[in-house]
């Protein structure tokens, strides 16, 4: 499987497999990393790719000392389903 890459110019994490592109859009402002949207093509669904993108964003935020604000419904749901993972990171509810 391909590696997830951070594309700072487009403010997103990307995973490309063949012609398909899965992405997690983010916005960094000060000490916050807002997760805005996650998109996984139908051909890539069911492989845990969305969760891998969220994890990549969490790891990046932790390395940079950022608080994550998950505006994306998928990311919020993923964090709720993985409270053990969420507990390891600085997460702020969108408001």
Number of strands: 5
Report how far the terminal alpha carbons are from each other: 36 Å
Structural class given helices, strands, pairing?
alpha+beta
Number of helices: 3
Tertiary shape = globular
Task: Compute the average pLDDT.
Answer: 95
The helicity comes to 25-40%
Estimate what percentage of residues fall within beta strands: 25-35%
Strand order of the largest sheet: 1-2-3-4-5
**In this structure, how is the largest beta sheet organized?**
5 strands, mixed
Poorly predicted parts: none
Order of helices and strands: EEEEHEHH
**Rg from Cα:** 13 Å
Task: Give a structural overview.
Helix content is 31%, strand content 33%. With 95 residues, it is α+β, with helices and mostly antiparallel strands. The N and C termini lie far apart (36 Å). The relative contact order is 0.17. The chain has a five-stranded mixed beta sheet with strand order 1-2-3-4-5.
Features:
95 residues; 3 helices; 5-stranded mixed sheet; alpha+beta
Any chance you could write out the topology, listing elements then pairs?
Layout (H helix, E strand, L loop, with lengths): L4 E3 L4 E6 L2 E10 L2 E8 L9 H16 L2 E4 L2 H9 L1 H4 L9
Parallel strand pairs: 4-5
Antiparallel strand pairs: 1-2, 2-3, 3-4
What would you say about this model in short?
Helices cover 31% and strands 33% of the residues. The chain is α+β, with helices and mostly antiparallel strands and 95 residues long.
């Amino acid at each position: 499987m391909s590696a997830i890459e951070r594309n700072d110019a487009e403010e997103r994490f990307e995973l490309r497999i063949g012609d398909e592109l899965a992405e997690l859009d983010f916005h960094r402002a000060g000490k916050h990393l807002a997760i805005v949207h996650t998109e996984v093509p139908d051909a890539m669904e069911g492989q845990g790719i969305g969760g891998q993108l969220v994890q990549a964003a969490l790891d990046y935020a932790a390395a940079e000392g950022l608080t994550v604000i998950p505006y994306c419904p998928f990311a919020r749901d993923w964090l709720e389903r993985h409270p053990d993972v969420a507990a390891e990171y600085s997460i702020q509810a969108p408001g």
